[in-house]
Structure formats: structure tokens, C-alpha cells
């Protein structure tokens, strides 16, 4: 007999399954029936947790945004150089999204679903940009306003490269990522390093 999951655990399971389904097929081709079947539940159970496919998709976007920020925080170790922070930041974005996933296309601007979904995508990417800016401000002398600008520039640049890298060979993808890392590192190094950064990691 199948074990009945607690509500929070069931919701988390449904989110994981929905993320996979939407990521593989995209929003419009994926139905609530598809997700319920993949999760091994009935459609009424799915609707107990999410009022509509749009609500479920927005919950998936929120979840991915949380994962993205958590990954950024994970590599915010003390003593890392600016170059290491930049490259790791780029890898975080590409690691969270499969480059052939519709989720990457959604987050990075080449797939539109609904206005509500787009608003949540904008919020999620803005929060990620804030996290990146805060991280880089640990290495360079950035005012809060400058950190916001740098974070947004970082995310916008990664968005552009992500679109180009979609479907590219591993060799070309690495070339694009390394070139972007050099470009962003050079720009960030235009700001003065913090004293503790010089002590721990002279450039």
C-alpha cells in the first residue's frame, strides 16, 4: 500500500516532478494530467496543492529562484579571489539550469508564458542579481548602489551567453563561459579591492 505523504512533503514532491516535466516539455505542452501521472497521484490531489497550472508553474519558478540564491551563498567562501567568484557565479547559473531546458529559456528571456509568470521570473532574477552583487562586494569596494548595478550587469550578461550557449557543443560552451568570465572579472577589478581581500588573495 502506498504511503500517504505529509502535506509539506507531498507538495515538495509535486514541485520536483513539475520542475522536471516543465523543464523537459515546456509550459504549454505540459498538462496537469501529465504532472499528476508522473507524480503517481490523481489530478484532484494535485489541485489540493495548486489551484492551476499557472500557480504551479509560478511555484516552480519561486523554488528555482531559491535554489539559485542558495547556490550563490554556498560558494561565498572567505578568501576567494574575484576571478574565482566570477567564474563560480557563472557556473552556478549554468549548473542550476540544463542548457537545453525550457526553464533556462524562460528565465533567460526566450520563452514567454503569462504576465504573472513573467513577473515572478523578474523577481527571481532580481533577487539573484542582489545576491551576486552582495557576494562581489565582499571582494571589492562597492557601495550598495554599485553592488546592485554590478549584480544586474552580471546576470544580464549571463542571460545573453545562456541564450547563445543553448544547444552549443561543450567546447564552444566553455569558450563562451571563459570569455565571459574574463570580461566580467576585468570590469569588476576596476573597483578597488578590499584590504582584507588583498591580504588573503593578492591579485
Automatic annotation (TrEMBL):
Signal sequence extent: none
Query: Which Pfam family would be a valid example here?
Result: TetR_N
Q: Name one GO molecular function term.
A: transcription cis-regulatory region binding
Sequence ranges assigned to domain HTH tetR-type in this UniProt record: 8-68
Cited Gene3D superfamilies: Tetracycline Repressor, domain 2
What InterPro entries does this protein's entry cite? DNA-bd_HTH_TetR-type_CS, Homeodomain-like_sf, HTH-type_TetR-like_transc_reg, HTH_TetR
Q: Which GO terms describe its biological process?
A: negative regulation of DNA-templated transcription
Q: Which UniProt keywords apply?
A: DNA-binding, Transcription, Transcription regulation
Known DNA-binding region: 31-50
Keyword Ribonucleoprotein on entry: no
Would the keyword DNA-binding turn up in this protein's UniProt record?
yes
Q: Which domain of life is it from?
A: Bacteria
**What PANTHER family is this protein classified in?**
HTH-TYPE TRANSCRIPTIONAL REGULATOR RUTR, TRANSCRIPTIONAL REGULATORY PROTEIN (PROBABLY ASNC-FAMILY)-RELATED
This one is known as TetR/AcrR family transcriptional regulator
Amino acid at each position: 500500500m502506498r504511503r500517504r505523504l505529509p502535506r509539506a512533503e507531498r507538495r515538495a514532491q509535486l514541485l520536483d516532478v513539475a520542475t522536471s516535466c516543465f523543464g523537459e516539455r515546456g509550459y504549454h505542452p505540459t498538462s496537469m494530467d501529465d504532472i499528476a501521472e508522473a507524480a503517481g497521484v490523481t489530478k484532484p490531489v494535485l489541485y489540493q496543492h495548486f489551484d492551476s497550472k499557472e500557480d504551479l508553474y509560478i511555484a516552480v519558478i519561486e523554488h528555482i529562484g531559491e535554489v539559485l540564491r542558495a547556490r550563490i551563498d554556498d560558494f561565498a567562501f572567505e578568501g576567494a579571489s574575484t576571478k574565482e567568484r566570477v567564474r563560480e557565479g557563472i557556473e552556478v547559473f549554468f549548473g542550476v539550469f540544463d542548457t537545453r531546458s525550457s526553464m533556462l529559456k524562460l528565465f533567460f528571456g526566450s520563452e514567454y508564458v503569462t504576465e504573472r509568470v513573467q513577473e515572478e521570473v523578474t523577481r527571481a532574477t532580481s533577487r539573484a542579481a542582489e545576491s551576486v552583487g552582495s557576494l562581489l562586494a565582499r571582494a571589492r569596494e562597492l557601495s550598495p548602489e554599485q553592488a546592485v548595478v554590478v549584480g544586474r550587469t552580471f546576470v544580464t550578461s549571463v542571460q545573453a551567453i545562456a541564450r547563445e550557449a543553448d544547444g552549443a557543443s561543450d567546447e564552444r560552451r566553455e569558450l563562451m563561459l571563459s570569455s565571459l568570465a574574463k570580461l566580467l572579472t576585468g570590469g569588476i577589478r576596476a573597483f578597488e579591492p578590499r584590504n582584507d581581500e588583498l591580504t588573503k588573495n593578492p591579485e
